[in-house]
């Protein structure tokens, strides 16, 4: 029950909150720098699996946890029709779900080849990866049995860069990688050098970019500041970077990689469109 209600919307204590069933929230403090993260865990329906459940690690989960959980639960009711099986969804967010820009830039980035672009702390990707592999995995495993051979890492934008960096440099832990509209521009040289050096891999990669990520969609064309937006998009070249990276990786990954242009989607809307595709990849054995 909502004990206090929410006067902003005229809600009283007699109204019930909408709750995501079979999902729990925990604070987890990183041993590396004592920062607190919000860990959300959604459990699938059905009896426990002897070999353990496949699991999806969802970065910036405060923006997409509910979307991902509901898509998985809806689609996994008919795996024969959808190609999606039940899985544990593990959401990782900032403390109390905060979208902390400075923390994201620290956790999701490496030191780029070339000058650092601003004065905020960067380069914490190795520490954050250890946090996921050791602390988050150990914590979740206390609550549910995981199949450590069927783990998926999902990230969007700068978190998508982190997904790519992880796969190309430390790819053994996760089986599947989903980089949605990744910010390759953060260290384009480093990403393409690593991609070019990849000989072969049994890892799977879903790489997506929205159709409108290198130009302005009709609904944004007349908006204030649109000239600055298009200039930034041209400078970062996210669409071209993903296209070129897909061409570089396809000979190395073969059928284990999908590089998709999402029709009529932009940088934000592409997340929801990509989730069902990621769920199908995560369901493969």
Automatic annotation (TrEMBL):
InterPro entries to which the protein is assigned, alphabetical: AB_hydrolase_fold (IPR029058), Esterase-like (IPR000801), Siderophore_Hydrolase_D (IPR052558)
Molecular function GO labels: hydrolase activity, acting on ester bonds
Keywords noted in UniProt: Hydrolase
Cytoplasm found in the keyword field: no
Signal peptide: none
Domain of life: Bacteria
One Pfam short name: Esterase
Family note: Belongs to the esterase D family.
Record protein name field: Alpha/beta hydrolase
Annotated source species: Altericroceibacterium spongiae
